[in-house]
Design brief:
By secondary structure, the protein is mostly helical. Helix content is about 70%, strand content about 0%. It starts with about 20 loop residues before the first helix and ends with a helix.
Length: about 110
């Protein structure tokens, strides 16, 4: 069953996303991360030194954190500051919950 994709920059709900302006850069970073994860998989398959593998995993985690922080910044600027004032409190709570989840992972 084929699904119909929303136009670029618009979510399934018809709303524009805060990261739309930087979407190409975001996708490029995510593809780079995907390659790094495949690289770690290859390192394990090749029985590489444990600390080298962990070092690469740490780099991936840091890169993912950077992507997440960028998305949170976009959310704050677009969805809270530039969004509907009636939704500001709810959106701020969502933002803070996401920050708490992000901080807990480490």
């Amino acid at each position: 069953m084929a699904t119909e994709e929303a136009p670029t920059g618009v979510g399934d709900d018809g709303a524009e996303r805060g990261y739309t302006a930087t979407k190409d850069d975001l996708l490029k970073r995510l593809r780079r991360l995907e390659g790094q994860v495949r690289g770690v998989e290859k390192m394990v398959a090749e029985d590489r030194y444990c600390i080298d593998v962990v070092t690469q995993i740490t780099a991936i985690q840091a890169a993912l954190d950077k992507v997440a922080l960028g998305l949170l910044t976009d959310h704050a600027n677009h969805c809270i500051i530039g969004g509907d004032p009636a939704e500001a409190d709810e959106r701020t709570e969502e933002l803070m919950a996401a920050v708490r989840r992000l901080m807990r992972h480490g």
